[in-house]
Amino acid sequence: MLFAVKMDVALPTDMDAQLRADTLAREKAYSQELQKAGEWRHIWRCAGQYSNLSIFDVASNDRLHEILWNLPLFPYMTIEVSPLAQHPSDIAVSDS
Amino acid sequence: MLFAVKMDVALPTDMDAQLRADTLAREKAYSQELQKAGEWRHIWRCAGQYSNLSIFDVASNDRLHEILWNLPLFPYMTIEVSPLAQHPSDIAVSDS
Amino acid sequence: MLFAVKMDVALPTDMDAQLRADTLAREKAYSQELQKAGEWRHIWRCAGQYSNLSIFDVASNDRLHEILWNLPLFPYMTIEVSPLAQHPSDIAVSDS
Amino acid sequence: MLFAVKMDVALPTDMDAQLRADTLAREKAYSQELQKAGEWRHIWRCAGQYSNLSIFDVASNDRLHEILWNLPLFPYMTIEVSPLAQHPSDIAVSDS
Amino acid sequence: MLFAVKMDVALPTDMDAQLRADTLAREKAYSQELQKAGEWRHIWRCAGQYSNLSIFDVASNDRLHEILWNLPLFPYMTIEVSPLAQHPSDIAVSDS
Amino acid sequence: MLFAVKMDVALPTDMDAQLRADTLAREKAYSQELQKAGEWRHIWRCAGQYSNLSIFDVASNDRLHEILWNLPLFPYMTIEVSPLAQHPSDIAVSDS
Amino acid sequence: MLFAVKMDVALPTDMDAQLRADTLAREKAYSQELQKAGEWRHIWRCAGQYSNLSIFDVASNDRLHEILWNLPLFPYMTIEVSPLAQHPSDIAVSDS
Amino acid sequence: MLFAVKMDVALPTDMDAQLRADTLAREKAYSQELQKAGEWRHIWRCAGQYSNLSIFDVASNDRLHEILWNLPLFPYMTIEVSPLAQHPSDIAVSDS
Amino acid sequence: MLFAVKMDVALPTDMDAQLRADTLAREKAYSQELQKAGEWRHIWRCAGQYSNLSIFDVASNDRLHEILWNLPLFPYMTIEVSPLAQHPSDIAVSDS
Amino acid sequence: MLFAVKMDVALPTDMDAQLRADTLAREKAYSQELQKAGEWRHIWRCAGQYSNLSIFDVASNDRLHEILWNLPLFPYMTIEVSPLAQHPSDIAVSDS
């Protein structure tokens, strides 16, 4: 089941440098593990912004929440979730 | 070059039934042609809304505009465009 | 899988009376059928507004979209969808 | 009398760990006590957000305010209240 | 139980003159009947706008909805409802 | 001359406890003095929010500003002012 | 007593030409009569928009409403009212 | 004196085809005349939208308003105006 | 050339008292100097808010920016600028 | 490929003076280097605001993001990006 997720990051400008570096490293590792597992299908940077647009493919709303809640950057993020469905014009699902 | 495009459709409730059917058929054919050509990479329905979220892969802003401007449903759409860049955590572009 | 759905209805003030009555009757029958089937778990009127707040329990985003897209009032509605997950304080899912 | 209440939580990222743990424990106990008493009818997590959607069944606006004002997390919350009424299509209240 | 209700009226500029006059007369009579009965406690015009701010004193959310839903101008209104509670500084309810 | 005033209060979560208690006590005394004098006609709590809706009856815009500017909580408030006029359906001012 | 009033005009693009010309002529005469009487102190066009920013000097909220309600363009306007007070830095009212 | 102007166009979907063609032709001629005269310095299409972003270089606010007010598409446009000033980092105006 | 400027002030609640007093004194002197020079034509307090609405009469956008940028309170302000033009109904500029 | 970019700057009012001066000097140098290289085509100050409107001419979305992400003021900015295309009325690209 697919979800589009927009994540906006706002790190405090006076954040401790070590905490910042550690958090970003853990975020990257966490994201890549889920990408390899197939649940985090796409991640794109929104040009000019500290934001990403991602596509998740998960078994349930509960699993989606579990993934997002445990993001190392979660306390610094504003997150918007859009549940996606098949589009009738999608050539992958249409016979016309 | 990737762009996320959100399209919200608002057809008049008193739209002529034949015009409506023709426009929707042309929209589907137009979309599928571009999907097959590889410029319209993804199209998803936003659950519960007459909207889609699409990912385009085009050579330029001008080409993106040309594609969207010629959508048969363009006069009935509100469109939001977000230019996308590679994300440093993307496993497709990262070596970590 | 649970979703909160807010539906705002805007009927044209000059809508044909028979069309209006028929559409409302079909909407009610459609809603009650889904309530009886257990997919439309709650429906409440938002006091003072031509709106409802509903809770759906469905198997997937695709099924949710199918239900909402086929609402007889869909062409007259603005719909907002919020995917819900279990809350750790919910006594139904917590042992504390 | 039913109310839908949306609660968004924003804890300071530098909040004292002990204060945070204590506040969350008190919040959970407070919520579960009211759930058992029947006034806090539902609590759902909004997927991907530090937010919940709840349904309260209380005797009056004053009682609703008393409950919300005394939430241990109240100083960290943004709260939106929607009074609910019976919907004519609700199978629990309709004979059609 | 008190509620603040803001009503914004938008009559079509091409509304039939007789229908308009009849609707406004019925609205006035309906409002005054409820004012005399004590449920519609205050009605003020918002200066410079086709809007009013009203205070209702009703037994329940259901009664509030019933009153508002049956306003002759309801199909032309945008309505915002705010449930009110006693304020601790109110001299009518405070002993300090 | 009547004005509706919505006041939203946002106290810092780390505010000094004594300063907070003093400020709230002064706010209450200040409000009650003006209520007794007849200029602050109504004060209601907005259910579930640290906000009030108040009705003032003052001689001028300048007097209204003087009252609000001197609220002990003014530096912590977001304030919205709506000038009110007599409504033609008000039974207190209508002979129909 | 001063008020800033922003008026945005939206005439239907298919408005009858004679009705339009008559309404605009009546609006201009009405405005100029009030300017000469001293109640409509300033009127400026907002550059690039079918809008004006005006300053009124009236005896009361009720008089302000009466003036605005009777604008020939009132049914086509969105109006925003801001009550003004003396500013302590105004050289006309300050001795510093 | 420079101004950034964003123009969003919304033509009625049932607009008369001849009127539409004539209006668009007049708009293009009008714009190009002002471009050649040097007052309309830049015009860009906002990708995916029936909108443009333009830069004007005019002698005064009054001249800017005169130009925009007389756009053949003005009745169908929403216009946003931003006055521009020299930026201290602009290499055309900086010696550093 | 006229501009309407809305300035909203947000001083930190923990601002140093001496810095605050000095900044406010400098702001007042600065404003009054420009009022006497004729460039700052009007300044009004928005009732109930730490805001003012001002009218400036300056030679250019650059001069307007220079004035506002050098306001002692500029770092604490949110500023909105609206370029104004003559209104055809203004009796000062109309012969009808 | 052209992009309009709006950058709003919000420096903390208690920012270290040396850090502030250094950051601004680096920002200016960085901007001017890109202007000289031809990628940062225009930069204008938005009158009365700590904001600029800029036009970039870059090879790709990725290059645009790289430029903006490395702005010394990036952590203090809110940035809005609008991809631009050729406008059919532009005399530089039109033969009519």
Q: Which helices and strands, and how do they pair?
A:
Ten copies of one chain form a homodecamer.
Chain A: E1 2-9, H1 17-37, E2 40-46, E3 51-57, H2 61-69, E4 77-86
Antiparallel strand pairs in A: 1-3, 1-4, 2-3
Your description of this structure?
The structure is a homodecamer of 96-residue chains. By secondary structure, chain A is an alpha+beta fold. Chain A has a domain of 67 residues: Alpha-Beta Plaits (2-Layer Sandwich). Chain A is built from two helices and four strands, in the order βαββαβ. Chain A has a four-stranded antiparallel β-sheet. In chain A, strand 2 and strand 3 form a beta hairpin. The longest helix of chain A has 21 residues. Chain A starts with a strand and ends in a 10-residue tail after the last strand. The mean pLDDT of chain A is 96. The interface between G and I is medium-sized, with 31 and 31 residues. Strand 4 of chain H pairs antiparallel with strand 2 of chain J.
- The CATH class of the domain at 17-83 in chain A: Alpha Beta
The CATH superfamily of the domain at 17-83 in chain A bears the name Dimeric alpha+beta barrel
Mean pLDDT of chain A: 96
Indicate the CATH architecture of the domain at 17-83 in chain A.
Answer: 2-Layer Sandwich
Q: Please state roughly what percent of the residues of chain A sit in beta strands, choosing from under 5%, 5-15%, 15-25%, 25-35%, 35-45% or over 45%.
A: 25-35%
User: What strand line-up does the widest sheet of chain A have?
Assistant: 2-3-1-4
Largest interface: G-I, 31 and 31 residues
Family (chains A, B, C, D, E, F, G, H, I, J): Belongs to the muconolactone Delta-isomerase family.
Catalytic activity (chains A, B, C, D, E, F, G, H, I, J): (S)-muconolactone = (4,5-dihydro-5-oxofuran-2-yl)-acetate
Organism (chains A, B, C, D, E, F, G, H, I, J): Saccharopolyspora rosea
Pfam family, one (chains A, B, C, D, E, F, G, H, I, J): MIase
